[in-house]
Amino acid sequence: MMGHRRLGWDDYLAMGRRQRLVILFPLALGPALLYGLSRALPPRYESDALVLIQRQIIPNSLVPSAMTQDVNTRVIELEQQGLSRTHLEFLIKRYDLIKEKGAGHPMELLVEELRKDIVLAPVKSLVRSHEETLPGFQIAVTLSSARTAQQVCADLTSMFMEADAQPREPPVETATSFLEARLADAERKLDEQDAKLAAFKREHPHELPDDSQANINLLNSLNEQLQTASQALDRLQQDQTNAESLLAQQEAAGKATQAGGKHGARETLESRLAALQHELVSLQTQYTDDHPDVVKLKGEIAQVRKDLEEQSSMPDTKTEAEVQPPAANEPAPVQQLRSQVRADADAIVTQTKTQERLQAQIDLLQSRIQTSLTLEPAYKELTRAYQTAQAVYNDLLKQKNESGLATGREQGPPSERLIVMDPANLPGSPTFPNRPLFALGGLGAGLVVGLFIAWVLEMRDKSLRNEKDVEACLGLPTLAVVPSLIVLRKHKQIAAREAGKLGIAAGSVT
Question: What is the pTM of this model?
Fold first, then answer.
């Protein structure tokens, strides 16, 4: 009647006490049965080998590799070669695995069963790195014979090593040839653009946009030189005018001297001295005493004063020099002024030519600057095309050099290779069946079966065993409970033992 109410822990304990034999019998029988079954099953032996992958010595950051296949892909390729149908058929025939798998089975089925018995498991690295590569892999072969499993595992390991030792031809030769062809084409285009740019520079010397700043700087310098030359020309013209005026005065004074004698000549020199002093005062208001014009005028004044002193010391009688022609008998100041006029005229001619030359150069530079603005679009287009061709050439040259380094690297020792860390072992005990594990499994199975049978028996039992069953069946509260005779007898025995200990008669105990 336990199905009519909710059970508690005391109910389950009571069920276990009542059905202990039902539970213990399967619990004892299960391990014996499964252990006997494990003894009857054919044993399976597992032989394994550990193969590690030695990483490349030269990092790709220093010298790039020409191989585009990474190590993980290489291991998968080796696995496909080792588990290929041809190689597995060779193993089946070599080690006579037909008897183990069954003589009546077709070869395709035998190959599939042997492929299932071979496991390649990657070995995970304990250190995390940015490159998710395998540090190695493990080869495990499970067969019914320990010696055969070892031989097959060793054969597979040897196959992996031989396949890895085979030279892998990287596509560097094709890549190098392709890069050389591209580089030759890029060099030809670069030479064409270089020739166009050089021809453009020859057609427009000193007129390119790159020469604009130099032309502007030179133009500013020439403008300053032209301004200086103009000022010098103005001074020369002024000096020539002053010299011509003084020369005219000297000539007039000379004529007066011839006509009036010594007194007239003295008056002429005095009037010239006064004019020079007046001009000196005018120049000193504009320039300092160190100015060339002021210094020159002071020298003329000193010369006129010297002539006056000589005139004062001369006698009144006429000499032979006075009766000679005027040109041969001119005074020194007149000759000096005449030479100065000629020198000023020559200097004016020279300075005028200099001014004209500077002006022509300025006009030429202005024309070049204007032409530079006109040629700038075409020059930019040619320069951009040349720079693009040069960038393409440099990039291809760099790739070709890297391809050459990669070729030299692949021609040396292999970048990654396989190393057998643990060769195929000879298993001493079978991996299947695991008899202790079978016995433990039989213990668990027997316990489950025993509990299930006990539960079914209890669910089919309709007995009312306590007041909870009565209340659940009748739906009424229990007024009184008659104890079991067995329970009452046990209570009396316990009371008698306690009374004997206390020295009380057994009959007085109720």
Answer: 0.41
